[in-house]
């Protein structure tokens, strides 16, 4: 009895899902938006199923919307074989010429024997189409008794000349399909396994970096280098050009104008050798803020996916301020206070010796007394603090054993100014930063 209840519930849910899927399938094929559909309360459907199976009627809270179906009564009463397929989905990667074997367990949840004849169905969509002869299933047919189980061995063999890309197919065990209220573009099999295969090859060419991030001053020119290493035995053509920003979440608020960028690149990277692409950025004097763009490398290597053929460029353009930042504070007569100003400088992703030494941040600090006098004393203490990485995260792989083992991740600079026996009243602090991306200040009053 429990098996029969399970079948009733499963069949009802299959019909329900088939109806919904059919509506969307027709809309997609017709290229039109599906007409508004009545809202179905799945919870109510399940509760109704359970009550019906138990022999109880569940009073509806509201009249159920009438669903008009083009199915015949015979189609609506079609019997479905209930098979438990494990795994139901299988995904893996293979190289051209590669092979993989895996086992599928099929258990008959029906109350009578089920005949199975596994076959390959290739979905009529996608960029790459799998050939049926790539996959074999053993045994080719089997009868599974009620509550019985059958194991199948699936072997996938990818030809040597297969194109790099994603392939998908279904392994269908019975001819049972989901009925749809409208004609469907292709059958939807109930007892099937979905198979996805990524055919790939290791890239023959290595590119570093794929991100260029820098802080640049308006009105200056900056040069960056993109390093290539060809590990293959044939030359690989490249043709870098401005573009490729589709990969990054956009549109950008400020896209780097093409007129800012020039690219100097060879036409190819010779076998077992390295090459350098130079990117020069000329920043106008009136620029300010964050700008982003990309470079499409156009590498003639099918093993490299499209998104890995792009280098993202992010620039933070700044200007040296001419007026100081101002902050007021109050002290009591005879108090001691100190002012600490701190700025950090990050090391950005720049390679190949194109990065010039940046000037260290400094500050012009002025304290104005309650009487209006200005104090421009020298800092009583300066501190330089650095963070250094021994990892390879910022180095091209061929630089792992070079002198670039240590990478300065960031540097912090601070200056401290102290005043003892201060005049009570309102003081003013003026800070004019130099070569600083941002800064912090701390005013500490008292012992």
User: Can you tell me the number of structural domains?
Assistant: 4
Taking pLDDT < 50 over at least 5 consecutive residues as the criterion, the unreliable ranges are 12-77, 349-355
If you average the pLDDT, what whole number results? 79
How do the strands of the widest beta sheet line up side by side? 1-3-8-6
SS summary, helix count? 3
Structural class: mainly beta
Shape annotation: elongated
| CATH top-level class of the largest domain | Mainly Beta
Largest sheet: 4 strands, antiparallel
> Helical residue percent?
10-25%
DSSP E strands, number: 28
Radius of gyration: 35 Å
| CATH fold assignment of the largest domain | Jelly Rolls
- Strand percentage, roughly? 35-45%
CATH architecture field of the largest domain: Sandwich
Distance between the termini: 84 Å
Could you walk me through the main structural features you see in this protein, from its secondary elements to its overall organization?
Helix 1 runs antiparallel to helix 2. The chain has helices spanning 2-30, 42-54, 73-76, and strands spanning 83-86, 89-94, 99-108, 114-116, 119-121, 135-138, 142-144, 149-157, 165-172, 192-199, 205-208, 211-217, 221-230, 236-237, 241-242, 261-264, 268-269, 273-282, 289-296, 310-318, 325-331, 337-346, 362-368, 374-375, 381-389, 407-419, 425-434, 439-445. The chain has 4 domains: 2-76, no CATH class; 83-199, Immunoglobulin-like (Sandwich), CATH 2.60.40; 203-319, Immunoglobulins (Immunoglobulin-like, Sandwich), CATH 2.60.40.10; 321-447, Sandwich (Jelly Rolls). It is mostly beta strands and 447 residues long. A 4-stranded antiparallel beta sheet has the order 1-3-8-6, with no helix packed on it. The longest helix is centred in the N-terminal third of the chain and has 29 residues, at 2-30. The N and C termini lie far apart (84 Å). Helix content is 10%, strand content 40%. The chain is elongated. It has 3 helices and 28 strands.
